[in-house]
Amino acid sequence: MIKRHEGWLAAKVGDELVMMSVDSGVYIGLNDVGARVWDLIETPRDVKELCSTLAEEFETTPETCQPEVEAFLAQLEERGAISRGV
To answer: Per residue in 57-75, pLDDT tens?
Structure first.
C-alpha cells in the first residue's frame, strides 16, 4: 500500500501542484498526472489500483502506466513524501 507522509503542504500553481515538506523544506513540482496520483493516495492504495484508475482517466492501459507510476512513486519515496507497506 502506498501512503502519504504527514507534513506536506500542497498548492496549485498554474498547471502544476507544488508541494513542500514542512519538516525538511524539500520542494516538489507535480504535473497533472503526478497531482492526480497525489490526490488518489490521500487514501492508501496499491499500485494496481492506482494504475487502473489512471488508465481510465488518461486513456492508457494499466500495463503501460505501471512502470511510469512505479518510477514516480520511487521519486516521492526518495524525497520522503510517501511510504510503501502492507
So the answer is: 998 999 999 999 999 999 9
Nearest residue to 6 via CA among 17, 25, 22: 22
Annotate 35-70 with b (16+ C-beta within 10 A) or e (fewer): bbbbeebeeeeebebbbbbbbeeeeeebeebbeebe
Using alpha carbons, list the distances in angstroms from residue 24 to 9, 50, 55, 61. Answer: 12, 27, 33, 36
User: Which structural domain, as residue segments, surrounds residue 34?
Assistant: 2-81
Q: Are 26 and 39 in contact (CB under 8 A)?
A: no
pTM over 0.70: yes
Pairing of strands 16-21, 8-13: antiparallel
In a domain, 86, yes or no: no
Task: Provide the 3-class DSSP secondary structure of residue 47.
Answer: helix
